[in-house]
Amino acid sequence: MDFTKDNEDSYYIAFKDKIVIIEKNGKSYVVIEDNNFNIWSMEYFNNKLYIATNDKVISYDLKSKQIDTCIENIPNYGDFPRMLMKIKGEYLFVTVGSATNSGVVGPDNTWLSNYPNHHDYTAKKITLKGLSFGENNNGAFVPNGVQNIKGQIIEGNNIGNSTILIYNLTTKAYETFAWGIRNINGLDFSSEGKVYATVGGMENRGLRPVINDSDYIYEVKKGVWHGFPDFTGGDPINSPRFEDQQGKVNDFLLEKHPGSNPPAPIYQHNEVTALGAFCIDAKGALSNKDTMFFYDKICNEILSLNMKERPKSLVQLGSKSSISNMKMVDDKLVILENNAGILYTIKLNENKDSAYMKNNLYISLLVVTLTSIVSIILLLLRRKYK
């Protein structure tokens, strides 16, 4: 599920195969539905909905009902198929996750039976060391059962995995904004226009398992390789940090690394596969300007992060709750709860001494309706960071 809002204060809620509008007056109806859809995310811009579905990004004109393809043949069939989107000015940013855990196809890839020839595609040309893994001597950036040779050059694909694409909403041209980013679970922009993202670290699985990794928040820099699959959290994969019980570490897959050492994250979490939805209070509506909010899937809570202090718990969720996405909308933090299908808002009260949560929209997973507005006021600790 995902959501967005237009200039008329109407909300659009994306389900797997349809999008429903909930107008300001409470009227709700299906805007577009297609059984072939598999919607990952959605954004609104100039009376059009931009929809990431299956392996493409399309636009839907809300007046003419015309559908146009913006980007297609995206290689998102792997471990992290969900594509996130975010609009900044006249540009649409689109994330593409890695196909594998750490660059090598193996038995941990559950998609292998459906896509036997799939693998990680690099966005730029790389040179490999020629390492082999498992009984089939699997190489990196090649299909299952295919070996690498030392010095092998892999040419860049038109659209690579572990990337952010940037699509010009005016010219309709697109290019790679940044690469070497394993899988992005949340994306937003600061008041200065900088791009930040929650990124999942490598896991202890597959033919090239990585232990002791974590999730991160990165500032994503244009044109920069961010390290995947040979660096994580700014550290090389052969660092003692990632030693197993026998004192062994993984070797590099790449013979030559693009540019200098990749950038370090601005925040390192204490778990892997934990960080999810993410947004930035660029205006300082709820706290200091550029305070970050992120969802911890393991602890099931939303935290706030100011660069001057450690993360603070903002909302502790119930055991049956799960956050699909959250965004800053009109000076409010809007949160889409996935399991019950509830859209929450968190905003300051009138005297700005605290924040409160109002359950103002109820979205049934089966039937989408607008309930009468029932306020559930929860006093939340709000602290100004100094």
Structure, described:
A hairpin with a 5-residue loop joins strand 1 (2-5) and strand 2 (11-14). Helix content is 0%, strand content 38%. Among the domains are: 1-72, Thrombin, subunit H; 76-273, no CATH class. It has 386 residues and is an all-beta fold. The strands form 8 sheets. The chain has a 4-stranded antiparallel sheet with strand order 1-2-3-4, with no helix packed on it. A 4-stranded antiparallel sheet has the order 5-6-7-8, with no helix packed on it. The model is unreliable at 352-386 (pLDDT under 50). The chain crosses the membrane at residues 361-381.
Helix content: under 10%
Q: Span between N and C termini?
A: 36 Å
Give a short account of the largest sheet. Answer: 4 strands, antiparallel
Shape: globular
Strand order of the largest sheet: 1-2-3-4
Order of helices and strands: EEEEEEEEEEEEEEEEEEEEEEEEEEEEE
Mean of pLDDT:
90
Which ranges are low-confidence, i.e. pLDDT below 50, for 5 or more consecutive residues?
352-386
What's the Cα radius of gyration? 21 Å
Question: What structural class do the secondary elements suggest?
Answer: mainly beta
Strand content: 35-45%
Number of helices: 0
Number of strands: 29
